Structures are given as structure tokens and as C-alpha cells.
């Protein structure tokens, strides 16, 4: 509710050397009476307009609900809404009566203050006493105005905050743009991840080949240095044969492990190929459905344009 503040068009001098004249006192009394009455009437009019507007909206809702009930006899939900609207209407009428009583009480108080001020003016109060009363009245009015301004500033801050929050919420076009950006970023990350896994796999394979080549070189060097000494005796030849058999056995085990891993990789590759083939079939089906939907939409738009013409 807005607080109307009346600012007099005159200034009352605190000096007692120049008394008020009769026409100035009459003008002051009329201005105060008119200001009080206009302020009270504006407040009453604003409150009544608000109540009448709410009452009109409720009556419109009631009329719409009655129309819906007439169209659908089994509309229990509409009946319940109607009951709620009637209760709300009664509550608003009670609030209106309370507000009217408060306004009448406030009007009576203002009229009483106006009569007291008129009596003081008729009694010929001293100008300094009258100036003090007017200063007090002006101070109270200014205090009410400051309170109203503070309340308005708080509401404006709340409105600005809500507006800023609503502005932070992206619209549909921004959401689509964000979705496209995230999709592109996800594709780029997946491609980088695939390349990184490929590079690590190549590095691990080359590292394993290096280790095998180092072992092979070490073995050949060992055989080259010990072969002449080993064939000179029967025990040396037996030890050489045993060591060679152990080397062959280890190589076979290593080969079996590699073959098992190769089979697993081949199975994984076959599974990925099957998934890729299924995805391609699904993609072609989606493209076909999309084309059908686009053709249907174009046909529908064409029919609508012909119908409108």
C-alpha cells in the first residue's frame, strides 16, 4: 500500500514577532482539511479498487467453473474448485469488511485531529506553539515517507535479484547451443582418449619387443661364450642341452601366453565390429524415420497452407 505524504506549500515561521492573519489561518485550515480528506479518500479508493478487482476475478473464475460444470455433469474436480472459490470469496469479503472498519476508524481519527487543529486555530494559539505542532506533524510524515522508501527499496532489491536469477536461466536456444558444444567436446575427448590408448598400446608392445630382444641378445652372447667350453666334456654338453631345452620351454610358454592374449583381442575386435554393424543399421533406420517425419511435416505444412488459402 502506498503512503501518501502531504507536503505543505507554505513554511511556518518559528518567530513569534509576526502573528498569523485571519485569511492565512483560514487557508491553512482548508489546506489541512483538504489534504487529510484527499489522502484518506485515495487510500480508501485504492483499497476498494484492489478488493473490487479481486472480487471481479473470483466472479469470472466462478462463471468459468459453472460453464465447465454445465458442460460436464460428472466434473467433481470442478465442483471442488467451485467450493474453494466460494470459500475464498467469503474470506475476501471478511477481509474487505475488516479493511473497511479499519479505514473508517482511521478516517475518524484523522477527522478528530483535523477538528482539534481547527479548534486550536480558532482559539488563536501562539504561532510558535502552532509551528511546533506542524513541525511534529511534518516530522511524522517524513518518517512515514522514509519507512515507505526503505520498504520500496527492499522490494526493488528483491525484484532485481529475482530478475537477475531469471536472466541467469538459459533460454531454449542457449540450451541447444550448450548441448551442441558439449556434444562436440565429448566427441573430441573420446577421440583424444582413443588416440592416447593407441599410443600407450604401441609403447607397451615396443617395450615388450625390446625386452625380448635384450633377452635374446643376452642368450646368444651367453651361448657364444660358453659353447666351446661346454662341448669339451660330456657333463658340459648335457648341461648345455638342458639349458637349451629350458629356454625352448620358456619360449613356448611365452608364445602360448601371447597367442591367448591375441585370441582375446581378436574376440574383442569381433564384438566391436558387431556393435558397429548394429549401430550402422540403427543409424540408417533413424535416418529413414527422420526423412519420413520430415516429408510428413512438409506435407502437413503444405496442406495447412492450402487450407488457409
UniProtKB/TrEMBL annotation:
Segments passing through the bilayer: none
Keywords annotated in UniProt: Coiled coil
Coiled coil start-end: 22-68, 241-282
UniProt-listed GO biological process terms: Golgi to plasma membrane transport
Domain CCDC93 coiled-coil, residue spans: 22-306
Matching InterPro entries: CCDC93, CCDC93_CC
One Pfam family it belongs to: CCDC93_CC
Protein name per its UniProtKB record: CCDC93 coiled-coil domain-containing protein
Organism whose genome encodes this protein: Erythroxylum novogranatense
Amino acid at each position: 500500500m502506498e503512503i501518501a505524504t502531504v507536503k505543505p506549500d507554505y513554511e511556518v515561521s518559528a518567530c513569534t514577532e509576526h502573528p498569523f492573519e485571519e485569511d492565512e489561518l483560514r487557508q491553512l485550515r482548508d489546506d489541512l482539511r483538504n489534504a487529510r480528506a484527499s489522502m484518506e479518500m485515495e487510500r480508501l479508493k485504492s483499497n476498494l479498487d484492489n478488493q473490487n478487482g479481486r472480487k471481479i476475478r473470483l466472479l469470472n473464475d466462478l462463471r468459468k467453473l459453472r460453464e465447465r460444470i454445465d458442460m460436464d455433469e460428472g466434473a467433481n474436480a470442478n465442483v471442488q474448485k467451485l467450493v474453494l472459490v466460494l470459500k475464498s470469496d467469503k474470506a475476501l469479503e471478511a477481509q474487505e469488511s475488516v479493511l473497511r472498519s479499519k479505514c473508517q476508524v482511521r478516517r475518524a481519527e484523522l477527522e478528530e485531529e483535523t477538528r482539534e487543529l481547527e479548534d486550536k486555530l480558532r482559539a488563536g494559539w501562539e504561532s510558535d506553539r502552532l509551528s511546533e505542532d506542524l513541525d511534529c506533524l511534518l516530522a511524522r510524515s517524513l518518517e512515514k515517507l522514509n519507512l515507505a522508501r526503505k520498504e520500496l527499496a527492499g522490494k526493488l532489491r528483491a525484484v532485481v535479484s529475482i530478475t537477475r536469477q531469471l536472466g541467469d536461466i538459459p533460454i531454449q536456444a542457449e540450451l541447444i547451443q550448450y548441448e551442441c558444444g558439449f556434444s562436440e567436446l565429448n566427441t573430441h575427448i573420446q577421440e583424444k582418449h582413443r588416440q592416447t590408448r593407441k599410443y600407450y598400446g604401441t609403447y607397451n608392445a615396443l617395450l615388450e619387443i625390446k625386452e625380448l630382444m635384450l633377452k635374446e641378445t643376452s642368450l646368444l652372447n651367453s651361448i657364444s661364450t660358453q659353447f666351446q667350453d661346454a662341448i669339451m666334456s660330456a657333463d658340459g654338453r648335457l648341461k648345455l642341452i638342458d639349458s637349451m631345452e629350458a629356454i625352448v620351454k620358456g619360449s613356448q610358454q611365452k608364445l602360448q601366453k601371447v597367442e591367448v592374449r591375441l585370441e582375446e583381442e581378436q574376440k574383442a575386435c569381433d564384438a566391436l565390429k558387431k556393435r558397429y554393424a548394429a549401430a550402422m543399421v540403427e543409424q540408417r533406420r533413424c535416418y529413414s524415420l527422420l526423412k519420413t517425419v520430415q516429408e510428413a511435416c512438409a506435407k502437413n505444412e503444405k496442406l495447412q497452407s492450402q487450407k488457409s488459402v
